[in-house]
Amino acid sequence: MLSDLLTAWGASAAYDARAECGCCRVVPYEMQEFGHFSTYIRGIRLLSAAKVLSMTSQRSLGILQLERGVAPGATPPVPPSGSMLSSATFDFPTILETVPGAWVENVVRGDPSLESAYIAAARRLVDRGAVAISSTCGFSVRHQPAVAASVNVPVLMSSLLYLPALLRQLAPQAKIAVLTYDSTHCSEDLLGIDDPDERARIVIGGVEGGKYWRDELKRPAPPTDVAAMEADVAACIARLRASHPEIAAILFECAGFPIVAPAIRRIVKLPVYDIAGFCRMAMASLA
After folding, report:
1. Fewest Cβ atoms closer than 10 Å to its Cβ: which of 6, 92, 182, 225?
2. Total domain count, the chain
3. Which residues of the chain have pLDDT under 70?
4. Same domain, yes or no, for 97 and 116?
């Protein structure tokens, strides 16, 4: 704790230098509460220390990420806000672990041989302090039982785990559209729905063949084309709604789609659920 306080105290040095220099003598109104400028600066230092302590005491979400094909030593593309890999997406820290051998093509298709790699990466996350675990691909739900059984923290590998609860949230006649990266591989076993009446309320659509789909298969994957993703997702939803006007909610299977979730909500005027929201709920439930 002392080292954290000292770090925060040092971090405020730049502020002190600016605030006390001869060319910048604007004293904020709030300093009147302290009665003296130096006391105000000490208050700033204490507030900075408190912020540092708050951040360091926060619990971290562990994220299992797929291989991206970035060469050793190379700088990966900066993920856009909303991405599971962006520090701007969550108001809590995240810890990343790459699952060796897990690429988009074999995770989407399904590769049972990856299970041990998923388990090992999840355990590394827990060893590093993760209090819950998620992933950057909804198709990782195939490994949900094995990973959950191997660690002692909550595991939410995919937003598809949401599906049974969402069906019960809506009116019996309402349908849910599941938007996936590749609908040709979004098989029945991934949905977790056994009741045929409930299954009839689920409509599946994918962006396979689109630019985002093609880009994610490249090694290395290029920077995310947010505009192309938004266009692909919006077009898919429009097609589904034309055939199924009963659709009352959207569930993004793809862990990349939260990037465009705000825009899609504005376009379709329906509730849109995704893995980022699922993670926020899980982390909020932890003490």
Report:
1. 6
2. 3
3. 1-57
4. yes
| Residue span of the structural domain in which 138 resides | 60-159
CA distances from 280 to 24, 93, 115, 164 (A): 41, 11, 25, 19
What is the rounded CA–CA span in Å between residue 192 and residue 162? 10
Instruction: Please tell me the pTM assigned to this model.
Output: 0.79
pLDDT of 8 reads 38
Smallest CA-to-CA distance from 261 within 82, 135, 65 is with 82
In DSSP terms, 206 is beta-bridged to 180
Instruction: Say what the pLDDT of residue 284 is.
Output: 95
Separation between Cα atoms, residue 49 and residue 19, nearest integer Å: 18
Sort 30 into a burial class: Cβ within 10 Å, 0-12 / 13-18 / 19+: exposed
Q: Is the residue at 29 inside a domain?
A: yes
Residue of 80, 124, 79, 127 lying closest to 99 (CA atoms): 124
Beta carbons within 10 angstroms of residue 171's beta carbon: 9
Cβ proximity of 213 and 182 under 8 Å: yes
Phi-psi region of 229 (alpha: psi -120 to 50; beta: other; left: phi over 0): alpha
Q: Of 128, 159, 190, which one is at a domain's C-terminal end?
A: 159
Q: What is the pLDDT of residues 1-31, one digit of tens each?
A: 334 433 333 433 333 333 334 343 333 433 3
First to last CA, the chain: 20
The answer to the question of residue 282 being in a domain is: no
209's tokens: 């063949």
Contacts of 1 (CB under 8 A, 6+ apart): 53
Angle at 153 between CA 105 and CA 271, to 5 degrees: 60
